[in-house]
Every structure is written in structure tokens, then in C-alpha cells.
Specification:
single chain, alpha/beta, Rossmann fold, 9-stranded mixed beta sheet, 6-stranded parallel beta sheet, 44% helix, 18% strand, disordered C terminus, binds adenosine-5'-diphosphate-glucose
């Protein structure tokens, strides 16, 4: 045990619990993985000390701490069967589609629920162990993989301060009620002191789902839910990016180099861009169909416009994702087959891989418009990255943003679209490119300013203050 006596609220250590440990194998051994959450949590956890609890990914020899980082790591080891039932099945085929408005039909199977419960118990046990080393720590549990952890930890440590953040949407009560284990999951979350969401809409859906599924067990007063004699705060806290760091990458020599190459490659053409994990919630097929319709209607654009889609491989152990990949690749092939002019470049460039940040920033800089068209998306950080890069390089790109993303609530100067209306989307894309540059630049500047003001460090500080039960301001963790 490292702490003696009472610690000030803003010094309490943080134990974070997330599906994966923030580690990957690099050329010189283990290194920090580039994920947004770890970048965001690192400064706070290093200042206050703490432990990150997560699945070890089946890797052995994970260090207790990375040489470059003063955060302890505590791996949770799972069997192949548990990984399949909990992760591939329950998390990705039941909860993910259910929480995303059932845009794909959720699969409900008792054996995968069993695995989910078992694995949540293993994570909760690991969290309790880590909390034993940091007795005054705050516990911060992340995302839909671990919704039973708050209640399980509460049973072992009744006085523990616990926060939960959901990175995906919470659907309307009618949809949520389809889950056969709706009460168990709600009780799991209500073990926390604070349950937080990206938007006020998701927060409200959660409270209404709790009232509907547990009518005699919960009492709602404003944004507080009473359950088993405890008061649980529900909050809306939109996640963000490290805007200053992104702006720095945008203006780095590596990005300038990659941008020069892109500008030479696509000289004289209008560049449209899509950047996503390859997921059926992201509206990639709808976006491609809109581009196809546009090229069909406007033969003059066929060699003047290029659409670059960068798709990071995702969850390819799951059938729905393999099907999506096949559909995307078939659609790209069809569009290029139909519209490539003899002796010219193809209209659609498709990259099935993730790119390093400077390459990604160069693509954001080169894009006259970014098409962010999810059918539903908790937040969408790609939209925030684009406006920051465009603004840092004084560019005047257009953000086309689905109204069904959490980001649409904040990035109000974006050109909002309904991706279900493919024809409307194709007209919108056609129209935005004619918008005068001054207005475009003003919109980008307004959105970038907001992202800088509400960056990820502010998000972390607010979340941690809420979990500790402190006043929300001033923001101290930078
Ligand atoms: P994701 O669904 O993964 O996250 P998103 O927020 O858009 O979605 O992206 C996360 C990160 O992945 C971004 O920082 C982005 O740069 C990176 N990324 C995406 N495509 C990439 C590519 N082709 N190459 C390299 N990097 C790429 C979930 C929720 C979101 C929510 C986040 C955070 O689904 O709604 O915004 O968590 O809470």
C-alpha cells in the first residue's frame, strides 16, 4: 500500500478498467498502443499514480509497468472460449448492434451471456486487487464490454467511488428492452456512483430504460437515479481529442512531406475522404452509393473528383464484418469499373488498413471534404481530428457530418446529412463543393475552436472530478 492518511481529492490515484491493456509489441519490445483513451488518461494517471486493468490479449510476459510510463499494468488472462463468448459474441454481436439501434440484428444467446458475466467477474476481481494497492483510488470503468463491473466491485467494496463511461450510444427504451438480460445489465451499471454518456440524448434514454425495466427499484430525481439506497448521478460528457497534439502533428515535417505527395498524386482534382474502422455503423456503403450516384449524374466529374476511403480492419472474426468488407470491396470495384475513364486514374481509392497519425493528418489536410456518414455513432473522433487539422493548416475543407453522431451535437457548423437518404447525400456532396471559400473557412475555424476548448484533457478532468464527487470546475488535470 502506497498511500497513508487522507489524500486531497485531486491527488487520489486512478484505477482504470478497459477491455484491453494499452500495449502493443513494437520493434524494441512492448510499447504504448496509440489509442485515444490511453493518450487521454496518461497525464492524469502519471500525476496521481494508478493502475490500468485490461485483457492481456492472450500475450504472455506483459511487464508490470512500461519503461516509458509510470502507470502499473494489470492484465486479465482469458481462455479462448471466454474471449469468443464474451468478446466476439456478446460484446460484438449482442451489445454492439443493440446499442447502435439494431442497425444489424443483435444475436441473443444464453451461453455468450454466461461468458460475459464470467469475464466481468474476472475484471471486477482484478480491479478489486488493484484497488487493494491504492486504497483511496477512484475506479473508472470503460465501455459496453464491462457493464457488470460496477455492481460486482460495489459488492466487494461498498464505499468505493466508481465511475462508468459508455463510449457508444444508449438506445431508446423500446429497443433496449429487447435484451433478455436488460435488468442485470442495468443493475450492473447502477453499482457506479456516476454513469456517463457522450450526449444528453443517450443519458436520457438510459434513465428511461432504467425506469421501464426496473419500475419498482429506481427513483428518478432530475439526473439522479436512486437505487438500493444510493444516489447515482447520470451525466453527459462528450469525449474529445488531444487537439493541441493533433495540431502539432498537422504542422510537422512528416505531415508536410506526406501532404506534398498526396497533392502531387491528386493535382487538379477535388478530394473527398472517408476514414473509419470498417464497421456497419459507419455508413461506408451508403457513402459509396452516394458517390456512385453523383458520378452517374455528373459525367464531367468522373475524372475531376477522387474519393479516398481509408478503412481500418476491424472485428474480422465476426461474420457481419466479413460480409461488410465484401460488400464495400464489391461496391468500390463496381464504381471504378463503371466510371474510370480510359487513360485516367480511378475515381475511388480504397485503403484497407490503418495509417500512422502523420499520414492520416496529411489525408485530412488534402481533403476538400470529409464524409462522416454513420447510421449511428456514439461520438466520432474522426470529425474532430479533421477540423483541427484543416484549421491548423488554414485550409477551408467541408465537414459533411451525419446527424446521427454524437459529434453533430457539438460541431454545429458542419453540413449535417441523413445517410439513410443516399440520393439526398449525393446532392449535398455536389452542393457543398460550390460553397464560397470564406464561409467554409469560417465554419472550420468555429468548429476547431470548440474542439480546442473542449479537448480530451478537459473531458478527463471533468469525469474524474465527477467520480470523486468534486465540483466540476476549475479544470486542474492538464
Ligand atoms: P470508434 O468506433 O473506433 O470509437 P472513432 O471515434 O471515429 O470511432 O475513431 C477512433 C479513432 O480511430 C480515431 O482517433 C481515428 O483517428 C482512428 N481511426 C479511424 N480510422 C482510422 C484509419 N483508417 N487509420 C488510422 N486511424 C483511424 C468508439 C465509438 C465512437 C467514439 C469513440 C471514443 O464508436 O463513437 O467516438 O469510441 O469514445
Amino acid at each position: 500500500m502506497e498511500e497513508h492518511g487522507a489524500l486531497a481529492d485531486d491527488q487520489r490515484p486512478v484505477v482504470a478498467v478497459a477491455n484491453r491493456l494499452p500495449l502493443q509489441q513494437g520493434s524494441d519490445g512492448w510499447e504504448l498502443s496509440p489509442g485515444g483513451l490511453v493518450t487521454a488518461l496518461r497525464p492524469v494517471m502519471e500525476r496521481r499514480s494508478g493502475t490500468w486493468v485490461g485483457w492481456d490479449g492472450g500475450d504472455t510476459g506483459i511487464p508490470a509497468r512500461l519503461p516509458s510510463m509510470s502507470i502499473d499494468l494489470q492484465g486479465v488472462t482469458l481462455t479462448a472460449e471466454q474471449v469468443n463468448g464474451y468478446y466476439h459474441e456478446f460484446a460484438n454481436r449482442t451489445l454492439w448492434p443493440l446499442l447502435h439501434d439494431a442497425v444489424e440484428k443483435p444475436v441473443f444467446e444464453r451461453c455468450s451471456w454466461q461468458a460475459y458475466r464470467e469475464v466481468n467477474e474476472a475484471f471486477a476481481a482484478a480491479a478489486v486487487e488493484a484497488l487493494g494497492r491504492h486504497p483511496q483510488a477512484l475506479l473508472w470503468v470503460h465501455d459496453y464490454h464491462l457493464m457488470l463491473v460496477p455492481e460486482l466491485v460495489r459488492a466487494a467494496l461498498p464505499e468505493q467511488r466508481i465511475g462508468f463511461f459508455l463510449h457508444v450510444p444508449w438506445p431508446a427504451p423500446d429497443l433496449y428492452s429487447r435484451l433478455p438480460w436488460r435488468r442485470e445489465v442495468l443493475r450492473g451499471l447502477l453499482g457506479a456512483d456516476v454513469v456517463s454518456f457522450h450526449t444528453e440524448g443517450y443519458r436520457r434514454n438510459f434513465v428511461r430504460s432504467a425506469t421501464r425495466a426496473l419500475p419498482t427499484d429506481v427513483v428518478v430525481r432530475g439526473t439522479t437515479v436512486g437505487h438500493e439506497g444510493r444516489a447515482i448521478a447520470t451525466t453527459a460528457g462528450p469525449i474529445s481529442i488531444d487537439a493541441a497534439q493533433y495540431a502539432e502533428t498537422a504542422t510537422s515535417p512528416e505531415t508536410a512531406h506526406a501532404l506534398a505527395a498526396l497533392e502531387a498524386q491528386f493535382a487538379g482534382r477535388t478530394v473527398l475522404l472517408g476514414v473509419d474502422r470498417l464497421d456497419y455503423t459507419k455508413g461506408i456503403v451508403e457513402r459509396l452509393l452516394a458517390v456512385e450516384l453523383l458520378l452517374e449524374r455528373r459525367p464531367d466529374l468522373r475524372d475531376q473528383l477522387v474519393f479516398i476511403q481509408i478503412a481500418v480492419p476491424s472485428r474480422d472474426d465476426v461474420q457481419e464484418y466479413r460480409d461488410l468488407r465484401a460488400t464495400v470491396e464489391q461496391t468500390v470495384g463496381r464504381i471504378n469499373g463503371r466510371f474510370t475513364q480510359p487513360g485516367t486514374d480511378v475515381p475511388v481509392h480504397y485503403l484497407y488498413r490503418g495509417l500512422p497519425q502523420s499520414q492520416l493528418a496529411a489525408h485530412y489536410a488534402a481533403a476538400d471534404a470529409l464524409l462522416v456518414t454513420p447510421l449511428i455513432d456514439g461520438m466520432n473522433l474522426v470529425a474532430k481530428e479533421y477540423v483541427v487539422v484543416q484549421h491548423a493548416l488554414r485550409r477551408a475543407g467541408v465537414l459533411v457530418l451525419s446527424e446521427f453522431t454524437g459529434a453533430a451535437a457539438e460541431l454545429r457548423e458542419a453540413r449535417l446529412c441523413n445517410p439513410f437518404d443516399v440520393e439526398g447525400l449525393s446532392h449535398l456532396i455536389e452542393g457543398v463543393l460550390d460553397e464560397p471559400l470564406a464561409g467554409r473557412r469560417r465554419r472550420i475555424a468555429a468548429m476547431a475552436r470548440r474542439v480546442h476548448q473542449h479537448d480530451v484533457h478537459r473531458w478527463v478532468a471533468t469525469q474524474i472530478a465527477d467520480i470523486g464527487g468534486q465540483a466540476r470546475e476549475p479544470v486542474r488535470d492538464r
